[in-house]
Specification:
With about 110 residues, the chain is mainly alpha-helical. It has 2 domains: about 35 residues; about 80 residues, no CATH class. The chain is about 50% helix and about 0% strand. It has 5 helices and no strands. It is elongated, with a radius of gyration of 22 Å. It starts with 18 loop residues before the first helix and ends in a 7-residue tail after the last helix.
Length: about 110
């Protein structure tokens, strides 16, 4: 016996589900998910766009980032490393390509949570 109804193929009640009908059901369930999602969660569609955007940039090590953006302001390397690692861990983004002028808070909808 199939584990999931879709695996049943054409037989049974599930056989009446076409690909277009399954797609419509998926879209409906995604709308429900978005409606009940916490306002503190970033938009998953926007999140995917930001991840793709950051992936197109070259990565910078903590040392490179510190040298280019923080050293002139007297910010220690240890703080840069801690901050970038912490943000990457808790926001679940690879921020090695993020720059100081990026608007990640606004772009990801984190401003709505504050």
């Amino acid at each position: 016996m199939p584990r999931f109804p879709v695996e049943a193929g054409i037989s049974g009640a599930v056989g009446h589900l076409t690909v277009s009908r399954l797609h419509a059901m998926l879209k409906f369930l995604q709308k429900v998910r978005d409606a009940v999602r916490s306002p503190y969660d970033p938009n998953p569609h926007r999140r995917a766009e930001v991840v793709c955007f950051l992936a197109q940039r070259p990565s910078r090590s903590h040392e490179e980032w510190h040298r280019e953006f923080a050293a002139a302001h007297g910010i220690p390397l240890s703080f840069v490393a801690w901050y970038r690692d912490t943000c990457s861990k808790y926001f679940e983004y690879d921020l090695s390509a993020a720059l100081p002028d990026d608007r990640l808070v606004e772009d990801l909808g984190f401003g709505d949570a504050t």
